[in-house]
Structure formats: C-alpha cells, structure tokens
Write a structure and sequence with these properties.
With about 600 residues, the protein is α/β, with parallel strands linked by helices. It is built from 19 helices and twelve strands. Helix content is about 60%, strand content about 10%. β11 and β12 form a beta hairpin.
C-alpha cells in the first residue's frame, strides 16, 4: 500500500503496516489494562472458530451413521445417538460460553474503558498550563478522547477480527486435512472477494476522511437547529431554510459518493461472488461424485458444505470488521502521542510563605507556536502589600503579563523572580496557593448552587462567616438573598435540587459578583483581578474597590479601564504593544499629559 497518504484535510489513512502496528498496540494496551479480559477473549476467539467446525464434524458423522442405520446397521444406530448427544453438548457449551462472555464483556468493558479514560484525564490535568491554550494539544486531546470513549468497542472489534481470522484459517485447515486440493481451491476463490472488499472499504474510508470537514459542518448545523438558545436568532434572521438546504446538499453529496463506490465495485464484486459460489458448488459437486463413487461417506457432504461456507463467511467478515475499526485505530496514534506529552513537574521546591517581592526582569514573551512578541522587555517589581493597576488598550499584553505572573507560562526571555528566585523553579501548585486570580473568562458553575459557587474558592475550608463577608464585599449579598432558595439556589434553570426546586439564570453582572466573592473567599495574600467588574455598574464597582483597597495586608494587582478604580492604586503601569510605556501614581500619569492622559481623557473630564 506504499506510503501514508495525506489527504486534503490533512487526515491520513493508515498504511497496512501502520494498521498492524496500531492493532498490536491496542492489544498490548488492553493486556496491560485487563489481562484477564484479553485472555478470555483470545480463548473465546478460538472457541468461536472451532466449535462450529466440531459441530459440522459431528453433523457429518450423524448423517453418515443415519444412512447406515437406515440400511439396518445396528451399531450405527447407537453411534447416531452418541453423535446427537455430542452435538447437543457442543450447543449447550456454546450457549453457556456466550452468556459468560456477555457478563465478562460487560464487566471488563467497564474496567478497560474507565481505566483508559481515567489515565487520560490524569494526563490532561497534569499538563503544563500553556498547553490548554495550544491548538495542537487541543486537537490531540479531542482525538485521544474519542479513542478512549471507543476503546472498549475497538477492543471488542479486535477480538471479532481475530476470531474471524482464526475461523477462516481453521476452516481452510479443516478442509486441508480432508482434501488438500479442495482447500487450495477454496483459498484461491476467497482471495479476489477479500481483496475487493478490502479495496472498497479503503475507498469508503478515504472518502470518509476526505469529507470530515463537510460532515462536521453538517452536524454543527444539525446541532444548532435543535438548540433552544440558538434557534431564536436563526429564526429571527430567517436562516433556518438556508441552513436546512445546506445540510441537505451536504448529505446528498456525501451519500452520492458512497453509492457511486458501490456501483463501481458492483460488477467486480459480482465476479468475485460468482467465483466463490463456483468454488462452493464445485466442492459440493466433487464431494457428491466422491460419495456416489463410494470413496467418501455420505455425511461428508454436510461437512464440506458447512466448512466451505464458514471459511468464506469468515474471510468476508474479517475484512469488513477490519474496515470498521480503521478510523478508531488511526486515533490510537493521537492517543499515544497525547499520553506521552510531558507533564508539569511537581518535584520542584514549594513556595513556603508569602513573598516580599515579585519581579519581572527584562521579560519578553511569545506564545508557543506564535511569532508575535506579546511582551517586550518588561521590568517591574511588585512589593508585598502594594496595590497595582495595569492599564492599556485591548491587545496591549495585560492579560499575558498576568498569565506569566501566575506561572501559567514562562518568559521567552528574561525571568519572573519571586523573592529573587526564578518562579519557574517553584512548584506551580504551591505558588497558586498564594494567589486568588480572577480571570476575565472565569467559570460559571451552573451545576452548583450559590453557596458552592463561592466555596469553590477554597475547597479545603467551609467557613460560613467568611462566606458571608465575601458575598458582602463582592456586592453579591443583596441579590443572592433574594433568590428563591437563597444560597441553596442552583444557577441553571434546567437543574433541580433534590427537593425539586428549579434553578435560576443569573445576569452577566451577577455572575461576575459571584466570581468576585469566590475570589475573596479564597483569602489569598495576593489578589489578581483581570477586569473583574466590566459587567458591574459603576456605583457597585466603586464600593467594591473602596473596600478592597482598604485591605492593607494584601498584595493586589488589577487590570481596569475605569479611572475611579485606577486612582486608588499605589502604582499604575500603562502598557502599549507589549511594553510598559508609563508608570507612577494616577495623579503623576495624568500630570504628564502623555499616553495615559490621552487614553483616559474623557473620564478625567
Ligand atoms: P490585553 O489583555 O492587553 O487585551 P492580551 O495579553 O490578552 O492583551 O493579548 C496580547 C496579544 O497576545 C494579542 O495580540 C493577542 O492576540 C495575543 N494572544 C493572546 N492570547 C494568545 C494565545 N493563547 N496564543 C497566541 N496569541 C495570543
């Protein structure tokens, strides 16, 4: 099959060799996760292939003895009885095996699936923070997730593939002992059919891979059309018909290609089928002639018919099973790549106490996979208990600066020092214990109630008094007390608590107040707020910051666009194009009548 072919979409189809390697890896991975299941499946594959052959063998013996018994042979009569009993036992054995198999399958499936998924989550949650922003990691994770979800299924399919393979060889082998020419003829007749089926499924898979984007668009359209919160806009804009038409034309195009493939292969497949049928009929004619000539027992007719049919069926089954796992097996490579990503190290020393200073020393920064310098030669020092404001236009680099401060990224050049030691030499978890960081894209825990939304700020404590204070300081006490079930109210209108009380929906500003309360509840020595009050009205914001900046035992770093807030800071850093262009108190910066003054002119007046 040659080299891996890269398709338009960049998705690749595995070569046969890669497929074999991948299958071996699934087997190894399964064996490591659940050795018992693999062994059971292997034995099952052999049983599944051999029992029908034995049944055919006894059917042949039964038929032969029946004919003899009919001719008056007394010992043949007894033999028939034994053969029927043996056949019945085989049938019973198959039934028992199947029900054990179902049970083992269900329990092992669960074990294999949960273990693979758990390992994947562990890995995802231990990566360096920068990876969560990284598209390559996101793509890998998506595919790994898909693979993990389907792992148990792939595992079952592989067992089926092995079983079909064994059945095919066992069938041909059984014929070989009977008559080697017959075995050879059947083998030759199987090959073209298998080859064609293989080609067809490769073509279908290639088409599937080429069409991934169109299919993804189609399912996104279908999804949007069924979302209550999306449908309003779609109907208001009159887009529904347009989207339905788009969806239909994509579906029809996709199906047409598939049907064209079938048509293209139809005549060839017919010839292959004719060849198989000819081999099957030929074997039956041959065995009939042999029986008539007295060279074979009557029952061999049944034997040949059963065994040839099974060998051919298993060959076809093998190829179609193989094609069903092709895509999932391809995802295995991504899964393994994902599992090999380096985890963030936890062997580093811990930040033991609140630092006296945090210093940016000539820090320049580019995001991984990006060539744009987002921070350039930034130097600043934040002393303990200092209150800092960072200002600048959108895209100036403020949020990035905070990400570096939180140790989510490390500087490309220069360093961030904590008490004169590089931050990246400390364990990042211990650093985060010192911080209460409220990001612009904070999380709305809709599945939790109001109380938990605040307590999530520090899951190691449950302090009702601090909870009350945090809600008050974040201007959230008033609206939360008016909610139908107070702090027990869930924050999504389709969630109900155990008593059947329905949740409510909050406004953007209310969510922000709750997120601020969570941040305050954390009670960390260093508070970092990235535009924490953008959706909160000016009066409430003023009250929040009046209280916050009165805290003299906290280090506070806040990004803000409101002059009333900025005025309260000890030092203001103005950023532009990744550089700090001005710094000083708010009054000093206004007095300079430069960049800062121009940016805040309207608010100053
Ligand atoms: P600000 O907070 O001042 O609005 P940011 O620090 O968010 O600015 O962004 C500064 C620049 O960095 C912008 O040009 C933005 O496009 C770029 N940027 C932000 N996040 C990423 C990222 N994850 N990958 C690549 N570039 C980014």
């Amino acid at each position: 099959m040659g080299q891996t072919k890269h398709k338009k979409t960049g998705k690749k189809q595995l070569t046969l060799k890669e497929q074999a390697v991948a299958i071996a890896r699934v087997a190894k991975l399964s064996f490591q996760t659940a050795p018992g299941a693999v062994l059971f499946k292997l034995v099952g594959a052999v049983v599944g292939a051999v029992v029908p052959l034995m049944t055919a063998y006894f059917a042949a013996l039964t038929t032969t003895s029946l004919v003899d018994a009919y001719g008056g042979n007394e010992s043949a009569r007894r033999a028939v009885l034994w053969y029927v009993i043996a056949t019945a036992f085989l049938g019973l054995f198959s039934l028992v095996w199947q029900s054990i198999d179902q049970y083992i399958q269900a329990s092992m499936r669960y074990r294999v699936e949960s273990k693979v998924a758990d390992q994947m989550y562990e890995q995802f949650l231990s990566l360096d923070f920068w990876r969560y922003d990284d598209k390559t990691t996101a793509d890998l994770y998506e595919k790994a997730q898909k693979f993990a979800q389907l792992f148990a299924w792939v595992f079952d399919r592989l067992a089926a593939i092995i079983s079909q393979l064994i059945a095919m060889f066992a069938g041909v082998g059984a014929l070989f002992f009977f008559n080697s020419w017959l075995a050879l003829a059947v083998l030759v007749a199987i090959v073209p059919g298998v080859y064609l089926q293989f080609k067809l499924s490769r073509a279908q898979i290639a088409h599937w891979n080429n069409n991934v984007d169109a299919r993804r668009t189609k399912s996104m359209i279908e999804w949007s059309l069924l979302q209550p919160d999306k449908i309003t806009e779609l109907r208001l804009y009159g887009m529904v018909r347009h989207l339905l038409d788009m969806r239909m034309s994509m579906r029809d195009k996709d199906e047409k290609v598939r049907i064209d493939f079938e048509r293209h292969f139809m005549s060839k497949r017919l010839m292959a089928d004719v060849l198989q049928a000819a081999a099957e009929v030929g074997s039956l004619i041959w065995v009939t002639l042999e029986i008539i000539a007295g060279r074979q027992a009557v029952g061999q007719f049944v034997y040949v018919q059963q065994v040839v049919g099974r060998a051919m069926g298993a060959a076809t089954g093998f190829v179609s099973e193989l094609s069903t796992v092709d895509e999932e097996v391809a995802n295995l490579f991504e899964y393994q790549q994902f599992m090999q990503l380096e985890r963030s190290s936890s062997r580093l020393k811990k930040v033991a106490s609140t630092p006296g200073s945090i210093e940016f020393q000539d820090v320049s920064f580019r995001y991984p996979n990006s060539r744009q310098w987002v921070l350039r030669d930034v130097s600043l020092t934040i002393r303990q208990h200092q209150h800092i404001a960072i200002v600048g236009e959108n895209g100036a680099g403020k949020t990035t600066l905070i990400k570096l401060l939180a140790g989510l990224y490390t500087p490309t050049k220069g360093s961030v020092l904590v008490d004169n030691k590089p931050l990246n030499e400390f364990d990042v978890g211990s650093w985060h214990k010192q911080l209460a960081l409220l990001r612009q894209e904070f999380t709305e825990y809709g599945f939790a109630n109001v109380r938990d939304n605040v307590l999530f700020g520090d899951v190691e404590k449950n302090d009702p008094e601090q909870l009350r204070v945090a809600l008050h300081d974040a201007e959230a006490a008033d609206f939360t007390s008016k909610l139908p079930y107070g702090l027990n109210t869930f924050l999504m209108n389709w969630i109900e608590d155990d008593d059947g009380n329905k949740g409510v929906e909050l406004s953007g500003g209310q969510w922000q107040r709750l997120a601020l309360a969570r941040n305050f509840y954390r009670d960390a020595p260093i508070i970092i707020l990235d535009e924490p009050t953008s959706a909160i009205d000016a009066l409430a914001e003023a009250r929040i910051f009046n209280r916050l900046f009165k805290e003299k035992d906290k280090t506070i770093v806040v990004i803000s666009h409101r002059l009333t807030t900025i005025k309260k800071a000890d030092v203001v850093y103005m950023m532009k194009d990744g550089r700090i262009v001005e710094q000083g108190t708010c009054q000093e910066l206004i007095g300079r009548r430069d960049e800062f003054y121009r940016m805040f002119e309207s608010q100053i007046q």
